[in-house]
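Key result, reporting period 2: structure in, sequence out.
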């Protein structure tokens, strides 16, 4: 990777961690992100126990290190700060999942996972949607699997390619998306109803890539965006 690529990757990593920490404040204040338009659908319930387990292990490690390093206070302070920051990131991961739900409006389905996936799929690009429990996900070109607790519950098949950017910014065109929702039946029902309205208005799918990523601070558009 070039020096410029390393800098870009570092910036994306820092921005991601800032979003995680900001999500803790949103969680405490009960201010979900990006739900001003449309209906929100949660997905974080399936990972609550796992995140609690990670947090417990982090606290236990901190206690053990305090005992082991009791005769090395300078080293212990550094390790303790790292443990606290790790715990904050774990809490931030769960907070981001709670405060950044999936959002469905009249033209776009916004699929999210914590603070690092924020994909806007135009309803006109959706060929079909179904509830489908999948617990094994093979990596294949053209597929995007957004599992929570090692499972996805909804499958979207697209009639046009949608462009997704990976965590490090590499573009990936997908035609099938699997993701998780706490209430998949309700979300599938709402998507199908929205698709019916779109088709009644004559907004038929096109055959070209219609989704380009823009930064979230721009006005909402029928395109997937980089997470803000």
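The corresponding designed sequence is given below.
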């Amino acid at each position: 990777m070039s020096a410029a690529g390393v800098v870009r990757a570092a910036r994306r990593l820092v921005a991601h961690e800032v979003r995680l920490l900001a999500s803790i404040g949103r969680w405490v204040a009960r201010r979900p992100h990006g739900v001003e338009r449309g209906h929100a659908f949660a997905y974080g319930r399936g990972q609550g126990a796992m995140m609690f387990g990670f947090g417990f292990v982090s606290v236990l490690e901190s206690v053990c290190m305090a005992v082991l390093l009791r005769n090395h206070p300078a080293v212990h302070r550094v390790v303790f700060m790292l443990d606290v920051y790790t715990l904050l990131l774990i809490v931030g991961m769960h907070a981001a999942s709670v405060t950044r739900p999936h959002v469905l409006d009249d033209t776009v389905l916004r699929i999210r996972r914590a603070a690092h996936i924020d994909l806007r799929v135009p309803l006109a690009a959706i060929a079909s949607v179904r509830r489908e429990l999948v617990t094994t996900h093979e990596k294949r070109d053209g597929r995007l699997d957004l599992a929570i607790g090692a499972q996805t519950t909804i499958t979207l098949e697209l009639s046009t390619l949608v462009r997704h950017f990976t965590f490090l910014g590499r573009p990936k065109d997908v035609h099938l998306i699997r993701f998780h929702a706490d209430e998949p039946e309700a979300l599938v029902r709402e998507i199908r109803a929205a698709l019916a309205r779109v088709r009644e208005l004559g907004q038929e799918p096109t055959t070209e890539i219609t989704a380009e990523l823009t930064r979230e601070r721009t006005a909402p558009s029928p395109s997937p965006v980089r997470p803000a």
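Confidence is low (pLDDT under 50) at residues 205-228. DSSP finds four helices and ten strands in the chain. This case is discussed further under Risks and Mitigation.
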